[in-house]
Design brief:
single chain; 308 residues; alpha/beta; Rossmann fold; seven-stranded parallel sheet; 37% helix; 14% strand
Length: 308
């Protein structure tokens, strides 16, 4: 898609100095790693930074806007992949898959089978979803239509609720949910949202699944809650520090599923993200604005730099 519109260069490194240097003459930067703010000061030909995916935390939007650079993303294209991951990990936790598989392999048939006495069905439970964007709505749809779950949701915007999702504030959602799913963006308001106080409000033994961003959860509080049994298990795909250090306490829990920030990555979703990002790049290069423009307030400044 891009070959007819310019020369495509892949960055030779992900450090700030390399990215800023190699983007200096770029018209478009397609992003799948964090960009340094200084990149935008030096890339005078840069028209747009386009996220290959949904989350904008990899782009310093304020720095881009100050430089008159458009910011765009491709929201929703990996929502199905993430939602399937959520339900997959919920089932794995309820069926004690990690512990069962380990004991079956290491201690034999009966040791693995003993876990069956402590497993649970997904059907009939209550799932609470924090964030009713594309991912949250997909989780709700699969949970409700596929497994017959009672679905509770909360959204700071107050929008995005299908008719089968009951609205609740965070305290009520935590108190009523057997499974809590974090699917909200990382913002100043959501950083540390699941703190020690919020975890204490959860049902004893409830599950926590985080496909949002690591900083939404207080790690120390969650580790203590897992150790005490207040949280019955967790599936964590995102972390404050990535890669997660190999000696991190999360690896020591048999009831914690750790995945390397890949809930939204499948062959299908990567194709959708690639096509979407390339399409936005071509629109910008042709003189149009992106369909998913995230800093529309700078259009006048952008047009002063690149008249249509």
């Amino acid at each position: 898609m891009l070959s007819a519109h310019g020369t495509l260069t892949v960055a030779s490194g992900l450090d700030a100095t390399t990215l800023a240097r190699e983007a200096r003459n770029a018209a478009i930067v397609i992003v799948r790693a964090p960009l340094p703010a200084e990149l935008f000061a030096g890339a005078v030909k840069l028209r747009a930074a386009i996220r290959h995916g949904a989350g904008l935390d990899m782009i310093p939007v304020d720095a881009a806007s100050a430089a008159g650079v458009l910011v765009a993303n491709v929201p929703g294209v990996n929502a199905r992949s993430v939602a399937e991951h959520v339900l997959f990990t919920a089932l794995a936790l309820l069926r004690r898959f990690r512990a069962m598989d380990h004991d079956l392999r290491e201690r034999g048939w009966l040791a693995g089978r003993d876990h069956a006495n402590l497993t649970h069905e997904l059907s009939g439970r209550t799932i609470g979803i924090v964030g009713m964007g594309s991912v949250g709505r997909q989780v709700a749809s699969i949970a409700h239509h596929g497994f017959g779950l009672d679905v509770i949701g909360m959204s700071r915007s107050g929008t995005g609720f299908p008719e089968y999702v009951r609205r609740a504030d965070l305290d009520a959602l935590l108190a009523k949910s057997d499974i809590v799913v974090l699917a909200c963006p990382l913002t100043p308001e959501t950083a540390g949202l699941i703190s020690r106080q919020e975890i204490a409000r959860m049902r004893h033994g409830a599950l926590l699944i985080n496909v949002s961003r690591g900083a939404v959860v207080d790690d120390a509080a969650l580790i203590d809650a897992l150790a005490s049994g207040q949280v019955g298990g967790a599936a964590l795909d995102v972390f404050v520090t990535q890669p997660l250090p190999p000696d991190h306490p999360y690896f020591g829990f048999g009831n914690v599923i750790v995945t390397p920030h890949m809930a939204g990555i499948t062959e299908e979703s990567m194709m959708r993200m690639g096509v979407g990002a390339a399409g936005e790049a071509i629109r910008v290069l042709s003189g149009a604005l992106p369909e998913n423009l995230r800093n529309p307030q700078i259009v006048d400044r952008y047009r002063a730099r690149f008249p249509a």
